[in-house]
Write a structure and sequence with these properties.
The complex is a heterotrimer of chains A (739), B (275) and C (146).
Chain A lengths: L2 E9 L2 E9 L24 H5 L15 E7 L5 E7 L1 H4 L4 E5 L10 E2 L5 E7 L2 H10 L1 E6 L6 H6 L8 E5 L2 H6 L3 E9 L11 E7 L2 E6 L4 H12 L6 E4 L14 H14 L3 E4 L2 H7 L5 E10 L5 E13 L9 H5 L5 E10 L13 H19 L3 H7 L15 H13 L1 H6 L5 E12 L8 E6 L5 E4 L9 H13 L6 E4 L17 H26 L8 H5 L7 E6 L11 E12 L5 E11 L6 H21 L29 E6 L23 H13 L10 H24 L5
Parallel strand pairs in A: 3-14, 12-13, 16-17, 20-21, 24-25
Antiparallel strand pairs in A: 1-2, 3-7, 4-6, 4-8, 5-7, 9-17, 10-15, 11-12, 11-14, 15-16, 18-23, 19-20, 19-22, 23-24
Chain B lengths: L1 E3 L11 E3 L5 H6 L7 E4 L8 E2 L2 E3 L4 H6 L5 H9 L3 H6 L2 H5 L6 H4 L13 H4 L20 H8 L3 E4 L3 E3 L23 E5 L3 E9 L10 E8 L4 E6 L6 E3 L17 H16 L2
Parallel strand pairs in B: 1-3, 2-3
Antiparallel strand pairs in B: 4-5, 5-8, 6-7, 6-8, 9-10, 10-11, 11-12
Helix pairs in contact in B: 3-8
Chain C lengths: L1 E7 L2 E7 L5 H8 L18 E4 L2 E4 L11 E3 L8 H9 L8 H14 L5 H8 L9 H9 L4
Parallel strand pairs in C: 1-5
Antiparallel strand pairs in C: 1-2, 3-4, 3-5
Helix pairs in contact in C: 2-5
Classes of the chains: A alpha+beta (739), B alpha+beta (275), C alpha+beta (146).
Chain lengths: 739, 275, 146
Amino acid sequence: MARLIRTEKEVEGRYEEVWIVVEEDPLEQWPEGPLTAVGRSAPRKDGHERVRGEARYTADIALPGMLHAAVLRSPHAHAKVGRIDLAPALALAGVRAALGPGEAHGLVEEAGFAGAPVAAVGADTLAQARTAVEAIEIEWEELEVVLDPDDAVRRELLTAEPRSYARGDVERALAGADVVVESTYRTQTVLHNSLETHQAICEWQGDTLHVYISTQYIWGIRQAVAETLGLPEDKVRVVCEYMGGGFGSKNSPDEYTYVAAELAKRTGRPVRCALTRREENTSAGNRNATIQRLRAGARSDGTIVAFDGEFTNSVGWSGWNSSTEGPMRMLYDCENVRTVTYGAQLNTPPMKAFRAPGFVEGTFGLECLIDELASRLDVDPLELRRRNYAGSNDGTPFSSKNLEECYRRAAPHWERRHEVHARSDAVWKRGVGMASQIWYGGGGPPSYAWVRLGSDGRATVITAMQDIGTGTRTAMAQIAAEELGLPLEHVEVVLGDSARGPYASISAGSSTTPSMGPAVRAAAADAREQVEDIAEQRGMPKDTPLEEIVAVLEESQILGKGARGPNPTGMSVLTFGVHVVEVAVDVETGEVRVERVAAIHDVGRIINPLGASSQVEGGIIQGIGHTLSEERLLDPETGGVLTTSLDAYRMPTIADVPEIVCDFVDRPDEHLTNLGSKGLGEPPIVPVAAAIANAIRDATGADVHELPISREEMLRALHEAEERARARKKETRGAPAAV
Amino acid sequence: MELLRPSSVEELDGGIPFHGGTEVVPLLREGLLDAERLLDIRGLVPRGIEAGVIGAGTTLAELEVDPATPDALREACRLAASPQLRNMGSLGGNLLQATRCWYWRLGYRCRLHGGDRCHAREGEHREHGIFANGFCASAHPSDVAAALVALGARLRTSRREIAVEDLYRLPDEADRSTTTLESGELLLEVELPAVQASTYLKAMDRKRWSFPQVGVAAARHADGSARIALAGVAPIPWRIESIEELDGATPLPRTEWKLPLARALVRRALAALDQ
Amino acid sequence: MSELHLTVNGGEHALDAPVGTTLAHVLREELGLTGTKVACNEGHCGACTVQIDGVPQLSCITLAHTVEGEVTTIEGLREHPLVEAFVRADAVQCGYCTPGQVVSAAALVAANPAPTREEIRHAMAGNICRCGTYPKIEEAILSWQG
């Protein structure tokens, strides 16, 4: 029986209350451990298509008569469009239409950052569109540019009200602490740089808009486009069968979709609007920079008594104020915590969610602070973390938490540090560091799936979800195969088209597996039950293979449907993990080599160990990128992005990869859905930077406080460590003889 | 735009010559080069290495694997760019490549573009130079150039014969170019004297596919002298006579970090020569 | 417009394209071979890698009119054992860089059938993967002969 309930939905740390329709889900979770399909390594169902280049991404789609759009973007970090004349553009060869500010959603009159979209042209070829954009006559009224986040906070130029949190009495606790550490940590602006740039193709067929888009959220695009254009949602179809990376940046339509839709409407032809790589580096969003002013107090027995943090997020012109303070609030058992988080509004490109937004930055600050504390207390860093283990989330119980098990499994990797130290020499110092991880990953309703069974004994899972490269298509097939008792090769998964299936969740916030997975299982179970009914009617024994039962169907089909049920009430659904990292530092040149990463993750039941290990490796490598070499730089005078190309914005290559050891606790969360699985997309990136920084400290005594840990920062920290050591030596030499 | 394949060096006026195209094609696309006519010079420039003479059309990939390539040059090639770019890019083209300075590459009207300021000096310059940076703070990106300068290479062009370092000049008020190459002049061959030993050490911020933060080439010549040249520290490949010359560097506030790095690499390079 | 002759995956093609057209554009837009991807369009990421006479090159900065030699794209490598090796090893996530990876890898193993990890890393350093599939790509190349 269907019920309408109100429940809590979380995506990337933001909670909202939603109404959902739930069916009772009587399915028991499967027992722990590898089953027939679930919990077994499976190569990707669409692996051949992708490897052979047969997969069609949005960038590969060419519709007959398709026009190409180019966008005029503000060269100024803050300016209003004065006079604009599109006529010179419209006069050029091949140009079919042009749009000015306000003529498509997202084309603005006030440019709040260099790169803000202001006008657009549609033409027969991309070259013609670009030439036409150059021809647009435009006058700007330049306005004040604010680039410094502390300045913005002082002047209350914020994207939202500051977010404060407090429990206990921090000042009193700090005053009574035996040891207090105080440090400022800074992280940089990081760009997603997915290899397929942001783009959409829009085509009107009658009054229905077809949107082909590189996206993480088919249904969100449908809803947003319908609302913005004033269309019934069923008049918007969104298609994304393959997409070339998102990492959080492709959750919304953005101006290129609306530009394409409007140009398509005016010209009667399909229109592609695609960002160039340069535009991707300037205008497509980013992980914002942070300044974290932190304090921690502890008793000499290692009990942490207080955490205090002031977090300044350089959000940019728009975006949201992510929870950089989250780890400080949630990771450890501490009675006295106070945080305040400012979202500075700056004339810089807007932030966009990037793989665990806020928590990556905040974990760097917090986990480095913890190691500073450990050093001052002379307590082992692993021991300090264990001693302050949180048994609940500020009073709310966890649906499951196996971080203690992660620590237990981390211990042998942590033990290696003696041997690692022994391999140091005069030039290369080696050390080991660790960091804990906490993040979300519970997913939530709604999400739906259908399962179709025919007389050939093959099943098709019908969804309208997306697989953004995480292998969720394969995981869904495994779940259905397990529930139906079919070989994996006989289960197909349809996805990627909102016209061909029911609502599916976003693929962000580590939510696809925990949101879609239970819906797929429920649909498969529904189909299986109908098949069992048929078997009973035909007097067949209970263990008759499904293929035999359905062989009689001929043209008839069994259709199962399933929905994602609610999340457990009154519980925090979170993921946990630990990284132990070994580094080598050349103390003369400041070169940092990450040599080994042991990653232990607790994300509930693992559906596909092979795919899961790829997520861990990928997250670690992205983490190494933002730790060592990636940084978006701005010209301080104009606010323009300087690192607009991939030779300047340097991401890791295959040569930068350490040895990676991947370990999953793989215990189902008994309170979470019929699967007990959480999401894994984000957890692996969260602790990387802190673990590397802590390993550097272990190797060299140098404290790095800034990301990226460039040569400049590493040499600075080494020099500072040397000065400290020299000062200490002087002190001990000058000290009076021991009594 | 026309594409021509001249059959003699006399036909080179009035067009932009290119070989592998790895520099010319992107610059054309970004509007940093303007051309109605492109000249494919692959038929005009020798290719291959023989008896200490390298054709300027030889690719970096070919030099990387040729046993006759001296160590400093081999290492410079091996660590330069990406495998694909090494397959496509010629020795001559590599010597003539433009700076990676973001202001220059983004078309800011800086001194090298004929303007009257160096945006890097006053702005974001953390990847820029520590020598001769008063007029223009750009850093020369070529590993190969530093290696050839340290090796004492001589360059034969379609018009003259010069030491490799004379291919370069510091830009000044009157003339903003960083090479002495004349219009219509082609690099043809590089001639290498025999050396006792040579090496190239390169600091990068990722293990591969990165321009030099600091690159140090050193060679022990037949007369026992050591020649040292640095990449990434000045608008042109920078020769120093001794490690003490580094004390004369004029770093900018955010290029100071290059100095201890350069010292360490020069020390190591000289030590490597004696092994 | 200028006439252009290309041999691609063993097939001859004659077409007209303006001088300045890149090989990547011809392959994708004129010949419909969309397996080769363009991700940066300026020679920095390797997604557009094709082989010319077996040598990996960047088609996005190669002028189509200057191509001498036979072009091999990912479509011409469909039956290469590396394809199965990549699928088996899960050496693919979003898949956008993957064709370029396979093209570079195919050239590597043609010259060196049993490369070491160091050799693999050196030869593949020009193919950027934002998803971080590198460890599995390395495994795929190590195990390509099955």
